[in-house]
Amino acid sequence: KAEKKAGFDVEAPESLGEYKFDGITMVNMEDMDDTGAKLNKRKAIDVTYKNEAGDKVLLAIDKYPENSIPTSEQAYQEMRDIKGVQVYYSRMESVFLPDEKDATKEELERSKNDPFFNLAIGSDKREEDASKHLIFDYKGVQYALMAGDDMDGNEFYRMAEEIIK
């Protein structure tokens, strides 16, 4: 049903390693240009997987617009070739704050210059977190896996292998 609503075919296995299917959500996507105009309105699919310990992995699936910046030109820290598909890895550090005035000078500077650092405003209290990401284009669709910082890198890449046939 989700494929029909989104308008494209996806590879979303029932499990990724020890993580089992936990739910699916349709997402309304759009891009924004420099003037704030909304472009490329489309449907995307988010699939959640969970292991026995309750840890989750999110698989975001999007028919990426052709006029978007290619995945290979976006920031990443490592690339591996899996069955002829380039899979891009990054680790993102995030600081969640109630207000931008709560950020240190160093955090404000880093948020401008480091593509792997996210300063998020609107949290009840200061929190720091990190997450791991794999992004790849496969059969004309973009797949983005996101997991917690404790995810083993090789296990994470094996999940991408389960999607890439």
Helix content range = 10-25%
- Beta-strand content: over 45%
> What shape does the CA trace take?
globular
Q: pLDDT below 50 for ≥5 consecutive residues: which ranges?
A: none
Structure in words:
With 165 residues, the protein is α+β, with helices and mostly antiparallel strands. The chain contains 3 helices and 9 strands; from the N terminus they run H-E-E-E-E-E-E-H-E-E-E-H. It has helices spanning 2-6, 105-113, 153-163; strands at 15-16, 19-32, 38-50, 56-62, 78-82, 85-97, 117-121, 127-138, 141-148. Strands 1, 2, 3, 4, 5, 6, 7, 8 and 9 form a 9-stranded mixed sheet that branches. Strand 8 (127-138) and strand 9 form a beta hairpin. The longest helix has 11 residues, at 153-163. The protein is globular and about 45 Å long.
Characteristic key phrases:
alpha+beta; 15% helix; 165 residues; 9 strands
SSE map:
Layout: H1 2-6, E1 15-16, E2 19-32, E3 38-50, E4 56-62, E5 78-82, E6 85-97, H2 105-113, E7 117-121, E8 127-138, E9 141-148, H3 153-163
Parallel strand pairs: 6-7
Antiparallel strand pairs: 1-2, 2-3, 3-4, 4-9, 5-6, 6-8, 8-9
